[in-house]
Write a structure and sequence with these properties.
The chain is of the alpha/beta class. Helix 3 links the parallel strand 1 (56-66) and strand 2 (112-117). Helices cover 38% and strands 14% of the residues. Helix 4 packs parallel to helix 5. The model has no long low-confidence stretch (mean pLDDT 94). Bound molecules: S-adenosylmethionine, 6-(5-methyl-2-OXO-imidazolidin-4-yl)-hexanoic acid (DTB) and iron/sulfur cluster (SF4). Residues 70, 72, 74, 77, 79-80, 118, 120, 149 line the site of iron/sulfur cluster (SF4).
């Protein structure tokens, strides 16, 4: 029997129209985080099963198409030129190399190919080159995603024209903690790019990182930002900080794995129809924690030995884990 908890209901939108999205207050999300673990997992599974097959996980493979030398100062990032992390600045990868990596990802079972560039904001000639990559990868039968930094309207439209399916642009954390992590752009800059992506008709991939040193209210604040978007992101990556030597956050205290699982569950409950991606940090996570994340409603992962510059679990480890759990890969 389910315990006698009063389920936190998302407060209704104040404008009173039926089509208006449900709003989640930060307090309501904090209350969700505080629900007993078993009840939270049960609720997350219920919500998950209303919208998805509970035993199917979507696989995305990442490729860094332009590595390092980024002028931004994101305190977690090994690719910022401000920190000495041993990551050298490289030029944009040639099209042929990208296509080779995309074919390998497809052969190994990925259905989406995500290309990341360490740019603050791409130039128009970058958009043209990435547009060619997008069209060619899409022609191979893969979904496409890119993450290139801040976009202008015409750049988002050009990427849509090239056939781009998803744009990844993370809010990373709550508005009030953001300034402790990044000083070279504002939260509003991020929201503006997300609006441009949405307006261009590209699906939104937007999430954040836990373990940055945020408190519980701030963690709830990130989820509130995501869940309260007029249209919540179709894809919500939840990253566990990968601590990289040389970055200001290299010595951060790890968050309790069960708090990470809770974050996944709260994302699932507040964004029932979104793919919730168990993203960076799996290499440092044991199988049981990952299994709990899937139970909490995660239904997408990055699949491939590398994220952008740091390691991700080896493919055979993921294959074994999926076999143990009876998880199937989502087919295109
Ligand atoms: N430069 C672009 C941008 O910031 O939007 C695209 C690439 S950037 C590496 C993409 C995302 O990776 C960041 O927004 C952040 O959420 C995530 N990320 C970067 N370094 C990370 C780390 N050490 N641990 C976890 N997530 C990280
Ligand atoms: C996202 O949310 N996580 C990915 C992807 N979007 C681009 C990146 C994770 C990066 C982890 C550290 C690195 O390898 O650079
Ligand atoms: Fe640059 Fe993106 Fe890294 Fe920030 S997260 S330093 S914008 S590559």
């Amino acid at each position: 029997m389910e315990s006698q908890i009063t389920w936190v209901k998302p407060p209704k939108a104040t404008c009173g129209t039926e089509a208006a999205p449900q709003r989640w207050t930060v307090e309501a999300i904090e209350a969700l985080f505080a629900v007993p673990f078993m009840d939270l997992m049960f609720r997350a599974q219920q919500v998950h099963r209303e919208h998805f097959d509970a035993n199917t996980v979507q696989l995305s493979t990442l490729l860094s198409i332009k590595t390092g030398g980024c002028p931004e100062d994101c305190a977690y990032c090994p690719q910022s030129a401000k920190y000495d992390t041993g990551v050298d600045a490289e030029k944009l990868m040639p099209l042929e190399d990208v296509l080779q990596a995309a074919q390998a990802a497809k052969d190994k079972g990925a259905t989406r190919f995500c290309m990341g560039a360490a740019w603050r904001s791409p130039k128009d000639h970058h958009i043209e080159a990435v547009g060619e990559m997008v069209s060619a990868v899409k022609a191979m039968g893969l979904e496409t995603c890119v993450t290139l930094g801040m976009l202008k309207d015409h750049q988002a439209q050009a990427l849509k024209g090239a056939g781009l399916d998803y744009y990844n642009h993370n809010l990373d954390t709550s508005p009030d903690f953001y300034g402790d992590i990044i000083s070279t752009r504002t939260y509003q800059d991020r929201l503006d790019t997300l609006d441009r992506v949405r307006d261009a008709g590209i699906k939104v991939c937007c999430g954040g990182i836990v373990g940055l040193g945020e408190n519980e209210t701030q963690r709830a604040g990130l989820i509130a930002q995501l869940a309260n978007m007029d249209e919540p992101p179709e894809s919500v990556p939840i990253n566990n900080l990968v601590k990289v030597e040389g970055t200001p956050l290299a010595d951060n205290t790890d968050i309790d794995p069960l708090d990470f699982v809770r974050t996944i569950a709260v994302a699932r409950i507040t964004m029932p129809k979104s793919y919730v991606r168990l993203s960076a940090g799996r290499e440092q996570m044991n199988e049981s924690t990952q299994a709990l994340c899937f139970l909490a409603g995660a239904n997408s992962i990055f699949y491939g030995d590398k994220l952008l510059v740091t390691n991700n679990p080896q493919l055979d480890r993921d294959t074994q884990l999926f076999e143990k759990l009876g998880i199937k890969r989502l087919e295109n």
